[in-house]
Amino acid sequence: MCKENGKQATNPTTTIKVKITKKTNVQPKNKIGKKETQLVTFDLPYLGFFYNQKLLIYKGNGSDYEEMVAKLKDGLSKVLEEFHQLAGKLARDDDGVFKIVYDDDMDGVEVLEAYVDLDGKEDDGDEEHDGGMVVSAEELASKEISFMRDLIPYNGILNLEGIHRPLLAVQLTKLRDGLAMGCAFNHAVLDGTSTWHFMSSWADICSGASLISIPPFLDRTKARSTRVSLNIPDAPPQLESVVAPPLRERLFKFSETAIEKIKTSLNSTKSGDKVPFSTFQALSTHIWRAITAARGLKPEEPTVFTIFVDCRKRVSPPVPESYFGNLIQAVFTGTAAGMVTGNPPEFSADMIQAAIRSHDAAAIEKRNKEFEGNPFIFQYKDAGMNCVAVGSSPRFKVYDVDFGFGKPERVRSGTNNRFDGMVYLYPGKDGGKSIDVEISLDAKAMEELEKNKEFLLDSDIV
């Protein structure tokens, strides 16, 4: 586990309060009958994780909140005809094999409507209360994610609960000049690539497209056909009840200039025909070294770097980019903390590059067979000692998700699945090669990181 032995990031910062005004369920617009899809080896490790949360904050550009909500619901009903798995539930067959089951009589996707309650008072019964009108999209975009926790549904809900809950929940919170869209996806059903494929398809439909330009590839058995019987405990696995020191979350906005500086400096150490370090490898090295130093670890203490690698092009044979599901695996590398901080950056970069490049079809097959031979439900403690774990990707075009009322002001991950050392990468809103880096750390380590000028370069901190 990452230093705090399995604890999610918690923050004493006051959270914004919301009032839910309406809950509805959205189903595919037309009946499509009963559908079943087996979860495969790539999906199963995430059953013990929490729902994966995303928050998109929009200015309405003059659009009326009620009209925006109606458009979003209508578009959702249409896009669910192709992405019907998100409107289903998890189930297990008689052999203990998990699957996604959809039928037309199921509830579908849960949609919540809400407003911001600045006073935090009990509901006074005033149905016309318009608390959300005093909070702007720009104001929210500058806040820490812990402050915005209640703008996203399903906080602290495990993916295993998808047996009883919708696999997707959406909360639409009214703002003065737009809305906040909080989404909670069951991570046993899809990964980041599939999440943003769905979101961009939904946005295209809302913006007037009659068809989804790239339909999802729904046959998971093309990636892995092995049936895995997975035993689950009588009660879902829970995080340990021991109170961990508070963690802090920060967003570091690295400009294109800073990213180029990090990458160019690192690649200046390469000679001959050696493969250059990618932007991801260079930035990952920059982050791993800085966090290791900020933690103040003893030279002999271990540190682990974890990457969630997209395997769509790595499996044999490859599957389409539009494959819908999880097709990622965690890849690990590690050494003593003193080796990371005491050597030049290229030492750590070589380790990261080697770990990524070695994760080929044979390595993927080996990992799958190991899991299938001894299947179990992963928890955070499996991430590694004093780890830095990187999720999401700056390749995801999150700021192109326009539902017809403009691009988002800010895109963030929610508070679920955050722990000491968890990092999320997103493209910067300014475009180009800028990258937003979300980091959760022990409060003391975060304080040290924020003072590290060599790490910060010219980045802004949210």
From TrEMBL:
Belongs to the plant acyltransferase family. Catalyzes the formation of N-benzoylanthranilate, in the course of methoxydianthramide B, a phytoalexin. Phytoalexins are produced in response to infection by parasites, and are essential for the expression of disease resistance. The keyword Acyltransferase applies. Keywords: Acyltransferase, Flavonoid biosynthesis, Transferase. Pathway: Phytoalexin biosynthesis; methoxydianthramide B biosynthesis. It comes from Saponaria officinalis (Common soapwort). It is an enzyme of class 2 (transferase). This is anthranilate N-benzoyltransferase. One of its GO terms (biological process) is flavonoid biosynthetic process. It comes from the Eukaryota. The keyword Transferase applies. Its EC number is 2.3.1.144. InterPro entries: CAT-like_dom_sf, Sec_Metabolite_Acyltrans. It catalyses: anthranilate + benzoyl-CoA = N-benzoylanthranilate + CoA. One of its GO terms (molecular function) is anthranilate N-benzoyltransferase activity.
